[in-house]
Amino acid sequence: MICKRHFMLTAKYCQFILFNGQKCYFSRMNNAQKEFKDKFPSGLVDEPLSRYCTFLVGGPADMLYRAQNTTDIPELISFAKAQEIPYLIIGGGSNLLFDDKGFRGLVIKIECRRINIDGDEITADSGVTVAELLNFSIRNGLSGLEKWIGLPGTVGGAVRGNAGCNGLETKEVIVKATILSSETGETREVDNEYFEYDYRTSLLKETGEIVLNATFKLANTSISKEEQLKVMQEIKQFRQQAQPYGSSSGSFFKNPSLEQPAGMLIDQAGLKGKTVNKTQISEKHGNFLLNLGGATSEDIKELANLAKQEVKAKFDIELEEEVQILDEYGKTKL
Ligand SMILES: Cc1cc2nc3c(=O)[nH]c(=O)nc-3n(C[C@H](O)[C@H](O)[C@H](O)COP(=O)(O)OP(=O)(O)OC[C@H]3O[C@@H](n4cnc5c(N)ncnc54)[C@H](O)[C@@H]3O)c2cc1C
Known about the structure:
Shape: globular
Radius of gyration: 21 Å
Helix content: 25-40%
Order of helices and strands: HEEHEEHEEEEEHEHEEEEHEEHHEEEHE
Strand content: 25-35%
Number of helices: 9
Bound molecules: flavin-adenine dinucleotide
Strand order of the largest sheet: 8-9-15-13-14
């Protein structure tokens, strides 16, 4: 017979898990998960990571917390350190490939969404999406971000990776940011130069510092809202023509040079339309790997490796991933 106390503990620390409505099993929490639920009751355990990336692949994270306040983040990192488990920061998940085995630690999904304006400067929390930032700027009569229409992800992801498109990179509009050192737990303000920006990279990729918010300088618009919307409509149409619709992480590889974009090399290696199980190199754009529905992370990695090998064999060029490929302990690998 189960006593009342045993029943209460079981209800608190065990749960039924459903994946894609197919498998159903009973999960028993480990000690770190129990402490996590005690300390952060709204935290999630054994949470499928496929829900948190645009590729729609990835197994369960032991723990996941949707941080809606920047002040939650240091506390979550301290918890992971005390438990001696890895942690991983994510924003929109549009530049990540999770492992099929998931993540054996704590995923901190940044969803902090404050946004303020001061003259021609906008300060946005790192969880604000680029789309929200753009809409906010237009609503407030500012211009300068129109070229980012259709750019997925959050402010935090863009600041770390120097995201950009149509000739506008983050480094051209960011003034300063508040960052958190994961080593010391210290928060400080840094300016544009600090990031040592280059093509799709910044110093943060080395330091592991976390962006809490960032300030962008725009211009008081001299063009009408209608003209702004027209420019964005044209860019949107161009994206729709040039890029495929479907689950991907955008460009999988960095462009080796302007003259030799990765998509062109993959195309000339004869790989457009190539599939591995439920993954395909897009027919429309050689640098887009698509999850056709039901793909695994392993399928995507196999197809990416094939593209790398073929491009190396044909052009003697090493393609480098733009997408961050993670193993179940958060280490980057292919
Ligand atoms: C259809 C499609 C089209 C795309 N087109 C473009 C394009 O034109 N140009 C372009 O540059 N990119 C493009 N991308 C890639 C992607 O949108 C960008 O890389 C984006 O900036 C990633 O932001 P994110 O919030 O999704 O980051 P995530 O994918 O969640 O994370 C990416 C990395 O940033 C880190 N990170 C996230 N938030 C923070 C934070 N607050 N502090 C520190 N580190 C953080 C994560 O740890 C991870 O290492 C495209 C993606 C898709 C799916």
